[in-house]
Amino acid sequence: MAELDITEMLIRMVVAIVAGGLVGIERDLRGHDAGVRTHILVSLGAAIATMVQVEAVEWGIDLVMIYPELSSSLSFDLTRITAQIISGIGFLGAGTIIIANRSVSGLTTAASIWAIAAIGIAAGMGYYFLVIIGSLLILIVLRVFKQIFRVKRRRRLEIVYINREETLALLTVFFQSRDIHVSSIEYSINMENPDYIICEDLYTLGLPHGVTLGEIIPELMKIPSILRISTIKEALD
Questions:
Q1: pLDDT tens, position by position, 109-150
Q2: What are the domain boundaries of the chain?
């Protein structure tokens, strides 16, 4: 294992910065708080920690070469710090996950932070080919896969209404007639009003191409028993 010189250290740090910056730009373009700076710092920090580990192991080997009697009392684990990076970065990723209004957001950003930490480790170890290919694959997953596998756009609506059975039947006919797939329904009943029961259901809908919420909400509001319709923020990735 060759000792790292200043030039090699700088190269590895620059590679980590570029890789983190590319993934961070993609997250910034999608409006996420964990963007360029966050991903660069994670990647760079992982690379620096990995280089410190590499240098520490090299120093230990040199010390044993000089003082062989220390070989029985010294132990070196090249994976100890990198393992701690991978597990520890989960706490940072958890900070990007938000649960609000019955919606979860930030899961993909948390995963990208974890993945870019692994890229930083690879840069710190000097595996440049792995850094390049890994970064490209991460970008492909973030930018391309969502378009390939998203057949219908998922949207969520909270529909508040009365006359439960009649309204549910009308809603079923409405969605079927417009090829809108109902992925799930979360039922809720408000019993506070003594005059009539108010239902507050959360619909997860798969909209076909060309259909928007702006088009279907006014049509839904024509159903007399519907009192209010609210859009629920879609789970961001």
A1: 888 889 999 999 999 989 999 999 999 999 998 887 766 655
A2: 6-149, 153-232
Place of tokens 């839904």: 220
Tell me the pLDDT tens digit for each residue of 154-177: 788 899 998 888 999 999 999 999
Strand runs labelled E in the chain: 98-100, 103-105, 153-161, 181-186, 189-190, 198-207, 226-232
Produce one character per residue of 14-36: b if its CB has 16 or more CB atoms within 10 Å, e if not.
ebbbebbbbbbebbbeeebebbb
- Which of 81-98 are b and which e, b meaning 16 or more Cβ less than 10 Å from the residue's Cβ? bbeebeeebeebbeebeb
Q: Is 74 helix (H, G, I), strand (E, B) or coil?
A: coil
Q: What distance lies between CA 163 and its chain's CA centroid?
A: 40
List the one residue out of 133, 136, 124 whose CA is nearest residue 14: 124
Q: What CA–CA distance (Å, rounded) separates 85 from 109?
A: 17
Give the Cα separation of 167 and 67 in Å (integer).
84
The reported pLDDT for the residue numbered 223 is 93
Single pTM value for the model: 0.60
Q: Choose which CATH entry (3.30.70.260, 3.40.30.10, 3.40.630.10, 1.10.443.10) describes domain 153-232.
A: 3.30.70.260
